[in-house]
Amino acid sequence: MADATEDKKPSISCVSRYQAPVQAFLRPGAWIPGYRNIRYHAEKWTLKSTPRKALLLFVDTIKHFQDGSEGLMGREKMSIARTDKDKGFVQVYCFTAKAEWLDIVEIQFMDEAGGKGDAKKPEDVEGESGTCHAIIRSFSTGFVPTIVPLAPLCNILCCWLPFAGNDPEVGFTANTRVMQVREQMQKSVDISVVEETSGCSTL
């Protein structure tokens, strides 16, 4: 099965692997207010689940897209960059298939009181259910793809350039990623969208 997956999706280049953490930390594509909003989308959810179970479901959802070819995320090369179960946080690198532009999906799970994560709470056991909240964000990190040497530096210099982060098949990629993740997770858990970005708003 592993060989079949490798045949379907080329691996992330070494150049992008080394540069992605730097660009993800700097994220110059999100520096300029107004410009960043055309390539940024976020939603706040209420889920019928505990934060820990919801986090594990999110990770399984990303792996589903990594292993398949469904929609925009199925065509991208993805890497789970950071998972913190105690804090209820996951960060995912999403590289376009050829040029390896780097976009990021981040999600933060919170308990009903707004606390981040609940990995150590006694009610988070098998068979128990609850309610939690999540904020999910998807955004472009820069104008120059990470396959280009010194891309993080180039993106600092180009941070003022407006670019939309569009895909010819799906339109705005940030919106599409959030929608795809939500729809896939909704096959296993009830999710209500209580707030989302519009215009120049951010979450």
User: So what's the oligomer here?
Assistant: single chain
Structural class label: alpha+beta
Number of discrete helical segments: 6
- Rounded to an integer, what's the Rg over CA atoms? 17 Å
Distance between the first and last residues' Cα: 39 Å
Low-pLDDT runs of 5+ residues are 1-7, 122-127
Tell me what you see in this structure.
The protein has 203 residues and is of the alpha+beta class. Helices cover 31% and strands 26% of the residues. It has six helices and eight strands. The chain has helices at 2-8, 14-26, 51-67, 71-75, 151-157, 173-185, and strands spanning 40-47, 77-84, 89-95, 102-111, 132-140, 166-167, 171-172, 191-196. The strands form two sheets. The protein has a six-stranded antiparallel β-sheet with strand order 2-3-4-5-1-8, sandwiched between helices. The chain has a two-stranded antiparallel ribbon with strand order 6-7. A hairpin with a 4-residue loop joins strand 2 and strand 3. Helix 2 runs parallel beside helix 5 (151-157). The longest helix has 17 residues, at 51-67. The protein is globular and about 45 Å long. The N and C termini lie far apart (39 Å).
